[in-house]
Amino acid sequence: MKYNSKLILYSSIIFTILLIIGLFLYINVKIIGFTEYDIDYVVGDHIGINLDEDSIHFGTGSAGMVLTRDITIGSDVDIDVKVKLSGIDYVTVEETEFLVLASEKRSLELIATIPPNLENGVYSGKLKIIYFKP
């Protein structure tokens, strides 16, 4: 009987400690989630539009052109948003950190500025959108 009482006591203490740690992490960890998209543009000797939905395509442009794409971010709850680009040169985002209020939709412009001396080819990378608790 004494052994069972100690086991119940120790199990209760461990459970309480794990519960407190879990609550602490839930309250203090701010990342809600993220979405990652493939992103690309093509440099060629013609102009082309790519409306495929498998990734974010700027289409085809010639050296020296500026290509733009708009994306929309929305949420059912208030969120802070951070946008990161990686692996792709000459693409910028107008805003990299902002707040999206519940039921609000936020448009974000992506800009690919193709330098005059860039060789023809496909240039690709990743766009990562990270969602935080405000």
Write up what this structure looks like.
- By secondary structure, the protein is an alpha+beta fold.
- It has one domain (30-132): Immunoglobulin-like, CATH 2.60.40.
- Helix content is 20%, strand content 48%.
- The chain is built from one helix and eight strands.
- The chain has one helix spanning 2-28; strands spanning 31-43, 56-61, 66-74, 79-86, 91-93, 97-100, 105-113, 121-132.
- Strands 2-1-8-4-6 form a five-stranded mixed β-sheet, with no helix packed on it. Strands 3-7-5 form a three-stranded antiparallel β-sheet, with no helix packed on it.
- The protein is elongated and about 85 Å long.
- The mean pLDDT is 91.
Q: What is the terminal separation in angstroms?
A: 51 Å
Q: Low-confidence spans: pLDDT under 50, at least 5 residues?
A: none
**Number of helical stretches of at least 4 residues:** 1
Shape: elongated
Number of domains: 1
Cα gyration radius (Å): 24 Å
Mean pLDDT: 91
- Helical residues, percent: 10-25%
For this structure, the CATH topology is: Immunoglobulin-like
User: Which structural category fits the helices and strands?
Assistant: alpha+beta
The biggest beta sheet reads: 5 strands, mixed
Q: How many β-strand stretches?
A: 8
- Can you tell me the CATH class? Mainly Beta
- Judging by the overall fold, what is the CATH architecture? Sandwich
Spatial arrangement of strands, main beta sheet: 2-1-8-4-6
Query: How do the helices and strands follow one another from N- to C-terminus?
Result: HEEEEEEEE
